[in-house]
Structures are given as structure tokens and as C-alpha cells.
Design brief:
The protein is an alpha/beta fold. The strands form four sheets. It has a seven-stranded mixed β-sheet with strand order 1-12-13-9-8-4-5. Strands 2-3 form a two-stranded antiparallel sheet. Strands 6-7 form a two-stranded antiparallel ribbon.
């Protein structure tokens, strides 16, 4: 599950010199996790327009001059750019590190890190993966704003930064120009979300398919917190979810879902929340919003037709749900992505 209330932004630029991809800087700090460092490169390195041009330019930089940066593994990575590269980024991503020192312990930036972050241009989109959020918080970017991090660090993070609204249940939070994610794999969810926000569902789905990961994961972090292992012979709610996805355009009641698994409504609701992390109603609403997004991006159906096909019934109901989930109206959403398609020469997977 995500918190996503941002209006999609146009990430690439056409200047008098022509096309320029959206520039993503990945800040490599000592003690970084190699897996998380690679997530932005793998996801943002894929999308291309109809002419084969990369829609993103991804580069790695350090707080020091180019050179090796230690990881939490038995090897270092050779980083080709110093902190000056942050000044030309449109998005800066901070992956997790296990050696944040005073940032993690006191909520205070080192002089070296503060000097590097000072190079970031105003208006640059910022994002963190897992404990990378400590860097954004210590720099003051999250004061008075919502944020998330790995559930195991949520209490410590909240105590260290009491002015931040910490939500330990979600996989990521999109607060417009600042985005934060939970641990490790949630960084994949976050980066796919940014591609979806920038260029639409079709492009993000293509990246997800090639990575063999779901384009959108249901639920939040609660489903990953350690708890007694369930009896493997107990029924799951997988079949009911598949049944519902094939019938989003139809009215679906909670009892209909429970009947698919031959469970009582009470048992089904409890089992569903254990497996997915949200209630059946919340999940169903999210699936319908996703279906509406796809239709708004890829078809010329009227608002009433989109609403009926995605299961909202009326355009007004769809408007209310999309406004609540995304912070934009269906009309504004379609207008944004149609404009992106025109500007980026009919972006295709």
C-alpha cells in the first residue's frame, strides 16, 4: 500500500537544443546496501520513448570526489561522480546505509554530507529508500511532513524526528516533491511508482514485467512483520482476489468475496487483512483506481464509461475516489498524461 497524493509531473525536458531526459542522481554513502544502490539504475534505466531515447539519465555520486565507497558487503563500489553532480539532478535518491553515524544516532548531518546536499537545486525531487530517510530528515526536508521507513526503525526514527508524521504501515509515501519508502524491496515499489507518475501505467508495467515483479503490491508493511507462521493447510484469499479482478466492473460485496473461499465474512476479512495488509474494501477500491488510471491513459472512453468499466458506477464516485487516492481529478489525470504522451513523442514500452 502507498500514500500517493501528488499530481503527476513532467519529468523530461524539451529545450531549444532538443530532448533531455530526466536526470536521476543516486547518492552513495559509506555502508550502503548494494542491492538498494542498484534499484534506481535497474528501474529508471529501462524506459525509452518511441525513438529509442532513454527517458531517464541515471548517475551515481558520492559526498567525496570520485572514488571507492564502502558497502555493507565485502566489496566497495567505484563511484564516478562527486557531490557536484547533485547540482544537475532533477531527482535525487538516497538509498539506505548502515554507517550513517551522527545522522542515525543524533539526527545531525556531518559537514561533508551537509555540504553535498547544499548543492541540490531548489525544486529537485527527493526520494529515499529504507533508512536513507534519515538523511532527508536530518537535512530538514521532512519537517511537518509524512514519511515512512523500515518498520524495525520506525519508533527510533519517530523519537529522533518528532516533527515528522511517521507512518510505519505503508510501503511508500509520495508527498509531492519528497518521497520515502520502507525497506529494501519497497524501494522497487517506490521507483516503479515514480515511473508511473512520470510516464504512466503502461511504461511502469513494462518495466515491472521485465524485472518479473508486480507493478503494484497490495497492502503495507504489517504483512511482513514477524508473527506465528500460519497453518499451510488453511485456505487463502488468493482465489477471491483473482475473481474480483476479473469482475471489477460489477458490484462486489464482501459476502461475495467470502463465498469464493467458502468462508464466513468475519473469517475472510481477518484472513484477507493478514495476507494483504488492508481490508477487502480498501483493496477493492485501490484496484478500481488502478483500472481507471489505465483507462484514462490509454483510451478515449468518456468519464462515465471509465467509471462504469472500473466499477465506480458513476463519474462522480470515480472522481471522489481518485481525488482521495491520488489528489487529482480524473480529468486532470487524463490531461496530464495525454500532454506527456504528446511531449515525449508517444512514449511506448
Amino acid at each position: 500500500m502507498s500514500v500517493d497524493r501528488a499530481v503527476p509531473a513532467d519529468p523530461a525536458t524539451h529545450t531549444t537544443e532538443g530532448f533531455r531526459p530526466h536526470r536521476v542522481a543516486v547518492l552513495a554513502l559509506d555502508g550502503l546496501l548494494p542491492f538498494e544502490l542498484g534499484i534506481p539504475h535497474r528501474i529508471f534505466g529501462r524506459p525509452r520513448d518511441a525513438l529509442g531515447r532513454s527517458l531517464y539519465e541515471v548517475f551515481t555520486c558520492s559526498v567525496r570526489p570520485p572514488g571507492p565507497v564502502e558497502t555493507d558487503a565485502d566489496f566497495a563500489v567505484q563511484v564516478p561522480h562527486g557531490p557536484e553532480a547533485l547540482a544537475r539532478a532533477d531527482t535525487v535518491i538516497v538509498p539506505a546505509s548502515y554507517e550513517l553515524g551522527p545522522v542515525f544516532e543524533e539526527g545531525r548531518l556531518t559537514e561533508e554530507l551537509a555540504a553535498a546536499l547544499a548543492r541540490i537545486r531548489p525544486g529537485t525531487r527527493l526520494a529515499s529508500i529504507c533508512t536513507g530517510v534519515y538523511v532527508l530528515a536530518a537535512a530538514g526536508y521532512l519537517d511537518g511532513r509524512p514519511a515512512t521507513t523500515h518498520w524495525a526503525e520506525a519508533d527510533h526514527f519517530q523519537q529522533l524526528f518528532p516533527r515528522i508524521e511517521v507512518d510505519a504501515d505503508v510501503l511508500f509515501i509520495d508527498d509531492g516533491d519528497v518521497l520515502t519508502s520502507a525497506g529494501v524491496a519497497a524501494g522497487i515499489d517506490l521507483c516503479l511508482h515514480m515511473v508511473r507518475r512520470d510516464f504512466g501505467t503502461a511504461v511502469a508495467n513494462d518495466v515491472a514485467r521485465r524485472m518479473v515483479v508486480p507493478p503494484h503490491r497490495d497492502g503495507g508493511q504489517a504483512q511482513y512483520i514477524e508473527r506465528p507462521v500460519p497453518d499451510p493447510q488453511l485456505a487463502t484469499t488468493t482465489g477471491a482476489r483473482a475473481w474480483a479482478l476479473a469482475r471489477l466492473h460489477e458490484p462486489i460485496q464482501l459476502r461475495d468475496l467470502a463465498e469464493q473461499e467458502a468462508m464466513s465474512v468475519r473469517t475472510f476479512t481477518r484472513r484477507f487483512r493478514e495476507e494483504v495488509g488492508v481490508s477487502p474494501g480498501q483493496w477493492l477500491s485501490r484496484q478500481r483506481v488502478e483500472r481507471a488510471r489505465q483507462l484514462l491513459e490509454s483510451t478515449d472512453l468518456s468519464m462515465d464509461q471509465v467509471a462504469r468499466t472500473s466499477g465506480f458506477g458513476t463519474a462522480q464516485s470515480m472522481r471522489q475516489h481518485m481525488q482521495q487516492a491520488l489528489g487529482v481529478t480524473p480529468t486532470a489525470y487524463r490531461r496530464t498524461f495525454r500532454a506527456l504522451a504528446d511531449v515525449h513523442c508517444d512514449v511506448v514500452p
